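Box 3.1 A note on notation
Throughout this textbook, protein chains are presented in two layers. The first layer is the amino acid sequence; the second is a token string describing backbone geometry. Keep the layers aligned when reading.
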Amino acid sequence: MKKFLLPVLILMMSLLYIFVIPSELVIVKLLFKVIPMLLIITYAYMQAPDRKQYYDWMLLTGLFFCMLGDAFIIYEFIFGLAAFLIGHLFYMTGFFRKWRFSKLHFAAIIPIGLYAYFMGGEIIQALIRDNNKALIVPVLLYITVISLMMWSAIMTGHKWAIIGSITFGISDSILSWNMFVTPFASAGTLVMITYYAAQFCIAYSLRAKASQASSHSPAITGTRS
């Protein structure tokens, strides 16, 4: 399959899952929820260099664990949360490997920290209110990890990694607010739209990184094969 067809197929399958597949058919819903992620992982693998490096494998592994989270969370929230947390740890490990320090990027830890403090506080209050205290520690751990993941992506300076990680944070914020604080209409649709967009941007960042690396490679003179 040619690379330029995959983004179109990813979009079509994502929209099919979000707007067409009924939630009552759990097995069918699970299948169509995972298909876009399988396609995104395939796309990411094709965008990465032929000789894949540590960064590439970390992001590919992160995508894989997020796909597992898609499946697990339908049946058991805490298992899905754990899979996504592991996925974020792989993303974060890869992003920190590409650390490019700048004062502006480093300062992003301030708004991200404020976001984590606000979301954590609101969710803790909601969990106490609903007598779900057992979820306080895992949810706070998840908020901490995804906040660090967003910051680590910003520290790479790679535009698509930054867009993808922040969009992922937005998706999880909508999900958490709707699940724990105040349910609101169309939350599920917004969660999945931002989620698939985030994962696609992270996958696309492998192409941007590969292109950047090739543009900085020294020119080789001589004959062409």
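The two ends are 26 Å apart (CA to CA). The chain is about 80% helix and 0% strand.
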